[in-house]
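Handout, page 2. Input:
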Amino acid sequence: MPNVAEQLTSLDEFVAWERDQPERYEYAGGVITMMTGGSAAHVTIAMNLAFALRHALRGTGCRPFGSDMKVIANHTVRYPDISVICRPVGDRDNHLSDPVVIIEVISPSTEREDRGRKNSTISRRLRSGNARSSSRTSALSIFTRARAIVGPTKSSRVMLS
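Output:
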């Protein structure tokens, strides 16, 4: 008998099913993928970026969220390493639908998916752009809707590892 996750087809069915699961899953195009934990390097990079963003965004009305905050956009459900929202968020809210920035720390095992389908489905929803940080090279790539901007600038230097 197939697993119930393999039988789900709609976003609404997935969201209802995921609510009762002990693990986290992502959903895109009817495909459900269980999330895995990150390496120490991955977590360190994500935390350093989130702390730097929190400090930089203070007083702007924007704030970063870590990988526990679900993003539902373009008929997908993702758990990006960092998402930034520029509107009030309630304490009981459990997902975002309108982040202005998404940051993914790229690991060798997730690079193909992070730079491919995941990037294209989420970035269509963003108002500003997204960023990708490599856990191998300590490089940060920032993507806007118009073009890719690669490399740190003087005002955006962050110790990645």
